[in-house]
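Quick one, tokens below:
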């Protein structure tokens, strides 16, 4: 019995010592993202855990942390607050621009599509490197840019040569803002860029104002417009229109537009024949997003348009004339897109449009 008591005492002693020496597990609060389906951010004091969900797999695709302490206790990728980013999509440039972090952009793809003047000047001076098309990126040029973080759109999942880049201290961060179906879900990805640059407070403040402004126009849009609207255009023999649960359909609904396919299922696009479009759109008076800046361009590409009543007698609006601006800033400024669509749905004298223009 005495031996058993001694052994128990020794076990308790070492257990207490191990418990005392072992670092406490961090307790993270709830996900601070309210609208995004694919981005989760958790905070615990100065520790931050970022999870990115793969839309096609509905499971965690990557976990990143901004904390040396937490990284040692997990299998997560470590991210240090950085000011050396390769932004491989126009929306990434837009996200960084609203938090005044253009200077963090060391590399971009498709430089001819850049709208932001500061970034254009950086490319011209050599401070920001052009990597060419995202589908044909040069890994050597990424390394030459001295970027330590790559933000990419994850069209095919894992980034090319990700393991090699990771060994060199370069972190690849997938971005699925383009798969969000709620406009505010897309804009909420600005929080990711805030944490990557140490501008999380600014990003939170900006997003809060975006939500406030968006909801103001949404509340106004509760009065439905008398005008029926259609969106999309012919691609080959079929017209592709946003499905009723898509990003664009959500904007139309929140603006108070009577969108003719608002009750259709799906989050992508739905194909319709020319006969179906003509049959379904007899009362349509507004055509949105044809993809061209002039009616002449529409007819040159799609001569079938001359058979569409809403093309002949209705009004047509599109953002094509400001496409670079739209692609770069639209994701992070959905309140301005909603403002445009609301004003088109409820026209008034002197209305101001930020992205859209009437197609004539």
């Amino acid at each position: 019995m005495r031996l058993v008591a001694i052994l128990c005492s020794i076990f308790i002693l070492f257990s207490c010592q191990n418990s005392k020496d072992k670092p406490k597990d961090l307790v993270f609060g709830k996900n601070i993202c309210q609208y995004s389906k694919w981005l989760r951010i958790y905070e615990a004091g100065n520790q931050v855990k970022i999870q990115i969900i793969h839309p096609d797999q509905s499971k965690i695709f990557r976990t990143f942390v901004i904390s040396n302490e937490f990284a040692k206790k997990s299998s997560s990728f470590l991210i240090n607050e950085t000011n050396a980013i390769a932004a491989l999509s126009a929306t990434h440039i837009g996200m960084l621009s609203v938090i005044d972090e253009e200077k963090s952009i060391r590399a971009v793809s498709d430089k001819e599509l850049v709208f932001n003047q500061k970034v254009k000047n950086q490319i011209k001076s050599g401070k920001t490197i052009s990597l060419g098309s995202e589908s044909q990126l040069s890994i050597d040029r990424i390394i030459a840019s001295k970027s330590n973080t790559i933000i990419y759109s994850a069209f095919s999942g894992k980034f090319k040569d990700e393991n090699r880049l990771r060994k060199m201290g370069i972190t690849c961060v997938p971005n699925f803002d383009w798969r969000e179906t709620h406009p505010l879900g897309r804009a909420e990805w600005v929080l990711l860029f805030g944490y990557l640059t140490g501008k999380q407070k600014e990003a939170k403040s900006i997003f809060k104002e975006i939500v406030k402004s968006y909801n103001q126009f949404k509340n106004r849009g509760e009065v439905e417009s008398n005008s029926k609207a259609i969106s999309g255009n012919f691609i080959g023999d079929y017209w592709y229109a946003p499905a009723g649960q898509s990003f664009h359909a959500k904007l139309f609904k929140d603006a108070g537009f009577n969108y003719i396919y608002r009750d259709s299922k799906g989050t992508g696009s739905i194909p319709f024949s020319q006969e179906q479009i003509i049959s379904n759109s007899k009362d349509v008076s507004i055509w949105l997003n044809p993809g061209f800046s002039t009616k002449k361009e529409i007819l040159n590409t799609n001569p079938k348009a001359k058979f569409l009543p809403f093309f002949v007698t209705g009004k047509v609006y599109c953002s094509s004339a400001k496409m670079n601006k739209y692609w770069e800033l639209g994701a992070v400024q959905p309140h301005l897109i909603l403002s445009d669509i609301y004003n088109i749905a409820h026209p008034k004298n002197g209305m101001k449009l930020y992205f859209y223009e009437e197609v004539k």
